[in-house]
Design a protein that fits this description.
mainly alpha; about 75% helix; binds fe (ii) ion
């Protein structure tokens, strides 16, 4: 069955994670030191979940796209999956340093299900879904960088490095979309 980019569960996950993080940022009125660390950990858990979803999605895409149409695009997806895994590890280690337990529990990635990974649709569908997801992650991480600004420069530097990678990923997906669809922008 063909999966439309707009109905993609992965996108719903990333969107939902960003919305949750935004809500948590709004709750930031209580600023005792304890609350700050707790909130920082909670925000990093949302980034961790975003990265886990990205690892899984790019891994799945790398296998299915290589099977249907393009080995080189498959390799590019696999390269992104590797980057997302590095991001996942960096964030998990930072959560640990701040005294939290990185949350790898699959049930906390709310809408993940077998159908989501059964078929990623056409090559163009996959590229579009990944481009939209990268853009949401970029917005999400910009919010986090603002939050960590002076409060926690170490976490801010880490998130800035990850953000730069996500911007590269978005550029890569955009280039693939132009190459394979012949149009520069998303329809939706
Ligand atoms: Fe990432
Ligand atoms: Fe990315």
């Amino acid at each position: 069955m063909k999966e439309k980019a707009g109905e993609n569960f992965f996108l719903r996950d990333v969107k939902m994670l960003r919305e949750q993080a935004k809500k948590s940022l709004d709750d930031g009125a209580v600023t005792s030191d304890y609350q700050d660390v707790k909130q920082s950990i909670e925000l990093l858990q949302s980034a961790l979940a975003t990265e886990i979803v990205c690892v899984l999605r790019y891994t799945m895409n790398s296998i299915s796209v290589a099977g249907i149409s393009s080995k080189s695009v498959g390799e590019e997806f696999a390269e992104h999956a590797k980057d997302e895994r590095e991001h996942m590890m960096m964030i998990a280690e930072r959560i640990d340093q701040l005294g939290g337990d990185p949350d790898f529990d699959p049930k906390n990635l709310a809408s993940r299900s077998a159908t989501e990974y059964g078929s990623g649709g056409s090559l163009v569908d996959m590229v579009k879904a990944n481009l939209v997801a990268e853009r949401i992650a970029i917005e999400h991480y910009r919010d986090l960088i603002k939050y960590f600004h002076d409060k926690d420069p170490t976490t801010r530097h880490m998130m800035e490095k990850i953000l730069a990678d996500e911007e590269d990923h978005a550029t890569d997906m955009h280039d693939l979309l132009v190459a394979h669809q012949g149009k520069p922008m998303l329809d939706e």
